[in-house]
Amino acid sequence: MKFNRKHRINQRIERISPQHLVVGIDIAKETHVAGAVNYRGIEVDHTCSFTNDRVGFEKMMHWVTQQQQRLGLTRVILGMESTGHYGNALARWLQDHGQEVVQVNPATVKRNKENRDNRPSKNDAKDALTIADSISRGYYHDWSWHEGTYRKLRCVVNEYEALSTDLTAIGNRLQRLLDEGFPEFLRVFKKWNGPRAIATLKAFPLPEDLKHRTIEQVIEGWRTTAMSRAGGKRGREIAARLLAAARASVGVTDIAPELRRNIQRLLEQRERLLADQEQVMNEILALLGQLPEADLAALKEVGISPWLTAVILANTGPLSQYAHGQQILALAGLNLCEDMSGKRKGQIVLSKRGRRQLRKYLYVAMIGLVANHEAFRAWHDHNVHTRRIKKQTSIFKLIGKLVRMLVALARNGESFDAGKAQALKLRTAA
C-alpha cells in the first residue's frame, strides 16, 4: 500500500476552482481578521475584522457574501491557522452553516509571510492574506471533527495527563522540603512515594517527630495511617534505620513547623489528585467501551494496554479513516526530514511537527512491545543484530510498522498474524 503525498497536494490545488473565493482568517482570542484572494492568489479587497461571537461571525459572512456578489463567484472556501483552541467555535459555526472550512499549518504561514512584500513584518491583516494565499496553492488540510466519543476521550485523556503533571510537581516540592528538613529520609527509603514512606511522612514528617520514639511507637504510627502490614521483621528493621537517621539528622530545625505544615498540605493535595486520577481513568475505560470494535480490536490484538489505546485513539480518531499509516506518523511528527543540497547530505531527523502527546506514547508503546511482545522483539533483534541498525533507529522504524499495521487491521478487519515474525526469529537464531 503506497502513500503518495504529491497526489494529495495536487488534489488540493485542483479543488480550488476559478469560481472560488478563498478566505483566510487570522485567529485571535477576541478579534479575528479575514482576508480574501481569488483562485490565483490575487487580493480582492480590504480585510475584515470581526469579534469572536455570533454577531462577529455573521458580520464576516456578510462581508464574504458581498465579495462573492461583487466578483461573480459562486463558491467559497474558508481557512484558518490551527493555533490552539481559539478557532474551534468559529470553525464549528461555519461548518454548521454549510461552509467549507480548512486549516493551515502555522509553520506554513510563518515561512510564507514574506512572499508578497519581501518584508519580515507581521500583522493580523498580512497573516490573513498569507493564509488565504497558502490555501490557494494547496497548502491546507480539511478541518475534520471526530465523532463525539473520540472528542470526549481526548478531553479526559488530557485531564489525566494534567493530573499526572500536578502529581509530579507535588513530588518535586515534597523532595525539596525533605532535603531541607530531613535529608537522610531517602537513605532509609528508596522511593519517597512508597507505601511505608508515605505513611512515615503522614505520621512523622520531620526528625523531631522521631527522635524520642521507639520502634513499637513508629510501627503504631504507621498503623494509624491505615498502612497494611506495618510491622513484621522488615518493618522493625526499617523503623530502626529510620530512628537512627532521625537522631543523626542535620536537617534545619528553625523552620520545622513551617516545613511540617507544607508537607502535610502537599500530602493532602496528593491524595485528592490520586482520587481524581482514579475517577478519570474509570471514565476513560468507560469511553473505550463505546468506541468501534475495529479500532479496539486492532490495538488489543497487537498487545497495547487500555491506557495507551485511549491516548492513541484520542489523538488519531477512528483508525479506519486513514488511508495509510504514514498519515498517523505525520500527525505525530514522526515523519522523517532530510537536509540535502548539492554534494552535502545532512542528517535525517524526525520532523517533530505534530502532536507531542501522540509521539510520546507511540514511543512508550513500542518500548513495551519490544520488551514483551514476541513478534516485535524478533523484528527489533533482526534490525539490531542482522541489519546492524542502531537500537533507537530500530524503535522508530518499528513505530512506523506498528501504525501501518494498526491502520490495515482497522480498515480490513484482519487479525494480527505473528507467523512471519516467528519465522524470522528462527532464521535469525540459526
Topology diagram in text:
Elements: H1 5-15, E1 20-26, E2 31-37, E3 48-51, H2 54-71, E4 75-81, H3 88-96, E5 100-104, H4 106-112, H5 124-136, E6 141-142, H6 148-181, H7 185-188, H8 195-203, H9 215-224, H10 232-247, H11 256-288, H12 293-302, H13 306-316, H14 325-332, E7 336-337, E8 340-341, E9 344-345, E10 349-350, H15 356-372, H16 374-386, H17 391-412, H18 419-429
Helix pairs in contact: 6-11, 6-13, 8-9, 9-10, 11-13, 12-17, 13-15, 14-17, 15-16, 15-17, 16-17, 16-18
The CATH class of the largest domain turns out to be Alpha Beta
Q: Write down the overall geometry.
A: elongated
Percent of residues in helical segments? 55-70%
Secondary-structure element order, N to C? HEEEHEHEHHEHHHHHHHHHEEEEHHHH
DSSP summary, beta strand count: 10
Q: Do you know the CATH topology of the largest domain?
A: Nucleotidyltransferase, domain 5
How many domains? Answer: 3
